[in-house]
Amino acid sequence: MRLPARLLPLAALTAASALLTGCFTSAGTSDTSAGGSRIRLAMMQPPRSGLSPLSDDAFKLSRWSTAETLVKLDAEGDAKPALATRWQQDGRTWTFEIRDGVTFHDGTRLTPEAVVRSLTRAATASPKPRILDGVELTAKAENDKVTVTTAAEDPLVPQRLSSPQLSVLAAKAYRGKTVNPVGAGTGPFELTKVNGTSSAALDRYDDYWGGKAKSPGIDVRFVPDGTARAAALRSGEADIVEAVPVSQAAVLDQDLITEVPMPRTNTLYLNTEKGVFKDASLRAAAREAIDAKSIVEGVYEGRADVAEGLLGPALPWAAELRSPVKRAEAGDPSGKPITIGTFTDRAELPEVAAALQQQLQKAGFKVQLEIREYANIESDALAGAFDAFILSRATILDSGDPAAYLYSDFGSDGSFNISQLADRKVDAALDKATEAKAGDTRRKAVSEAEAAVLATDAAVPMLHERVVQGDAAGVTGAAHDPRERELVTADTYVR
Asked: The domain spanning residue 155 has which CATH number?
């Protein structure tokens, strides 16, 4: 059982704070004009792939505003101009006009050829960046434009090109087998130094095409220990702290923390192919037995949102388009034995499993839990070895679109179909959503697909997680992004 934050010994918090002492000494310029001092940033995860944009490290480059993409996404998930100013589709081919007057941090110009070089390196990488998994993409420079062609017609090409994994870097980044982003981006901050997995430094790039940043630079420290990150905010050692643990949030000044809805849903997947939950009425009984509110209050200390559907408040349009769903009536679960699986890698999930065990046993089920590390349980979950499985699942993938998640998890041919669901109505709704054009039409189709899944009770969404971000009192303009693509922007500074 997790020790509540309010009961942590003062010595533990003091020791955690000591871990950060002195580690934000500026590694960059000392200029403090146009926005005060440099921004001291404590991040949760260190680089895993040397900050290569072809890996998940790309999201760090994006959150530091050093590497940019052709397109960015608005709050609704629609594509907006970035390094590309406009685009149009002709079947399988999209044509992008490249922004004029942009320079890389090494002083070289952004050209269509530079864009093609970056996209081609990503498209031919092994393994490919996750955003291009299953996608065949080629790029060509034509006059002042770039054409992007896919093997099959794809309405989401602009959204794909918004992924930080498809950032456009200068030629110097691609010397050798690895991709080195130091001094090679186009953003308002230039990455100047990386110290392995311990720290990084960025300086303001005064020739940024979007206007001079308000802060002179960023000093980054990678602090995997959550207590130490929280202590850095308490002690004033850090200006912005990423991912403050729920257990620590209560002991911080509440004016310094912001809870950001994440596109991540904690869901109970029910095995529809075999066992107890092959019976739709018993799936309904399980759904009715679950008290998600008590889990939010007890396990997440109120820092999560009770789920009304699979898609949560990080997608602002989801609630507006959701309509009532007709489900099966609940049967009698008395004496029915079930095994629920989950994993230890996310600290809250074993606690969620214990709470569900009590709730379902109260309804009449006989419940056994099986909890392992994720690497040791995933294959069994995908093979349908459990009656139910608890999963914290990202509901929008790198394109910012939830259709891919719904198809993966609930399509008959879905690669992550833990519920073993094979339903013709669901498949038809998923196909419609996958093929729909981006925008209102696609959002409506996605909402209809969500309703089709919920009607089967193959999955019981319980709660939508939040991430807690800490901003010191002097911080102005820090981004609070559910997609975790932005954090420090050109408008962020410390007073």
From this structure: 3.90.76.10
